[in-house]
Automatic annotation (TrEMBL):
PROSITE patterns: G_TR_1, G_TR_2. This is Peptide chain release factor 3. Increases the formation of ribosomal termination complexes and stimulates activities of RF-1 and RF-2. It binds guanine nucleotides and has strong preference for UGA stop codons. It may interact directly with the ribosome. The stimulation of RF-1 and RF-2 is significantly reduced by GTP and GDP, but not by GMP. It comes from Qipengyuania soli. One of its GO terms (molecular function) is GTPase activity. PANTHER family: PEPTIDE CHAIN RELEASE FACTOR RF3.
Length: 507
């Protein structure tokens, strides 16, 4: 039965409180028992979903983690995405695997650039969004300012579902519009511990503000929300537990169950009997004691059973999946069955790659998983030249995961890595050292960006004949034009109108 699945992501700008909200949702779902709960090893207080070494050092989420939990008969699959502004490609791809998203906004800062960027990706796929305005127990912008900014910046109708009564030092609770009760702060910590009171008399100015908020914005409309045209807005404080319960209830009640997924001209329905899914992420070395590689599959249809044989589109031979994994961040448990909407981890040795479709009949190909043209290109220089083989293996692994892209120049021996954001380079160097024991430095590359080239074979051959010094192959063997500047791209496009210079490549 697919209707009890809710597969969603949390998106936000760094520091909006996404990690805290993730942890509180898991607490609500009974998946953890103590906020800030960590492995006994080490004293670092960090969220369960942040596990890579660089994440612990910098206190940010770098990889997308999957957490599955149940509450009131609903199975929630929460995909925690990196919020760091420099780390976007993994985030973008994760958003292809969800049916809805929760957008977290800091009440003092409003919509920030990263939030807007992630929202655009949701819009491309009509992913419906619930907005959570966080940190209302602190000083922030007025309700109208926040609501109007969401409406204007994202071109969405907004439908407030709650409102803070005062902010900062004047904060006295959060009013739930559904039943006119107020969640009250308690104790020295001023957090919500379950105490609710009916709405009493309010000071005139606050009463007027609340009335205007209720009357001045559209009522919630399920169809408009699911079409991606309206966002319900909840106000709260993840740290102090305000609004978390209401948010999880809204996801259960309103967020769509598994949606059909695009496969070329066809839409594959979750009701289809055949088991189908696609790989949106590959993560190596989740367990440093074992060189493991887990492919994350978003199941699109059918009922999966452990031991079943599925055929990956990139491999062609059926593989038996004996140890499928359900995730709770770094903890795992074997999955005997999984339904449409679930995210399962498939251990493999490099067979599965980002963008692969898995199916029983090998007749389906899911589309729409993008690679983005890198905005930063660097040459990789080994500290110890005898480790070329290990470096090649590491770069292959990491490009398979989608952490980096690797380009092999037609002329010249030094490989070039491309990333969307600066932080990916730090992740690359950190992981080369920690996981592969390869010390390397990054050097400037003569190129500023890259474009995939498509066209008739004779036109490609002609272009290649005169431009070999600026051409490379990616890890799939596709031809890539390495440009010294954006002007260079425009010039070549004008000169060769018969060719397409593409900034994205669908897997």
């Amino acid at each position: 039965m697919t209707s009890n699945r809710r597969t969603f992501a949390i998106i936000s700008h760094p520091d909006a409180g996404k990690t805290t909200l993730t942890e509180k949702l898991l607490l609500q779902g009974g998946a953890i028992h103590l906020a800030g709960e960590v492995k006994a090893r080490g004293q670092a207080r960090r969220a369960r979903s942040d596990w890579m070494k660089i994440e612990q050092q910098r206190g940010i989420s770098v990889t997308s983690s999957v957490m599955t939990f149940e509450k009131d008969g609903i199975t929630f699959n929460l995909l925690d995405t990196p919020g760091h502004e420099d780390f976007s490609e993994d985030t973008y791809r994760t958003l292809t695997a969800v049916d809805s998203a929760v957008m977290v906004i800091d009440v003092a800062k409003g919509i920030e650039s990263q939030t807007k960027k992630l929202f655009e990706v949701c819009r491309l796929r009509n992913v419906p969004i619930i907005t959570f305005v966080n940190k209302v127990d602190r000083e922030g912008r007025s309700l109208f300012e926040i609501l109007d900014e969401v409406a204007d910046a994202l071109a969405l109708d907004v439908s407030p579902q709650s409102a803070p009564l005062g902010m900062g030092g004047l904060f006295t609770g959060v009013l739930d519009f559904a039943d006119d009760t107020v969640a009250k702060p308690e104790g020295d910590s001023r957090e919500y511990r379950g105490k609710r009171e009916p709405l009493g008399d309010l000071p005139d100015d606050l009463a007027e503000e609340i009335e205007l908020v209720r009357e001045g914005y559209p009522e919630f409309d399920l169809e408009a929300y699911r079409n991606g045209d309206l966002t319900p807005v909840f106000f709260g404080s993840a740290l102090k537990n305000f609004g978390v319960e209401e948010l999880i209830d809204a996801i259960a009640k309103w967020a769509p169950p598994p949606r059909p997924q695009p496969a070329g001209e066809e839409q594959i329905s979750p009701e289809r009997d055949e088991v189908t899914g696609f790989i949106f992420k590959v993560q190596a070395n989740m367990d440093p004691n074992h060189r493991d590689r887990i492919a994350f599959m978003r199941q699109v249809s059918g009922t999966f059973k452990r031991g079943m044989k599925l055929t990956p589109s990139g491999f062609g031979k059926p593989i038996a999946i004996h140890s499928p994994i359900l995730f709770f961040a770094q903890d795992r448990e074997l999955a005997d069955t999984a339904e449409a909407g679930d995210i399962i981890g498939i251990p493999n040795h490099g067979t599965l790659r980002v963008g692969d479709t898995l199916s029983e009949t090998n007749k389906v190909r899911f589309t729409g998983l993008p690679n983005f043209a890198p905005e930063i290109l660097r040459r990789v220089a080994l500290v110890d030249p005898t480790k070329t083989k290990q470096l090649r293996k590491a770069l292959d692994d990491l490009s398979e995961e989608g952490v980096i892209q690797v380009f092999y120049p037609e002329i010249g021996a030094q490989w070039i890595v491309g990333v969307v954001g600066q932080l990916q380079l730090e992740v690359l160097i950190s992981r080369l050292d920690a996981e592969y024991k390869v010390a390397a430095n990054l050097e400037a590359s003569p190129f500023a960006t890259a474009r995939w080239i498509k066209g008739a074979q004779k036109d490609l051959d002609e272009f290649e004949k005169y431009n070999r010094a600026t051409l490379a192959k990616d890890r799939d063997g596709d031809l890539v034009f390495m440009a010294k500047s954006p002007w260079d791209v425009g010039y070549q496009q004008e000169k060769h109108p018969e060719l397409v210079f593409s900034a994205t490549k669908e897997r």
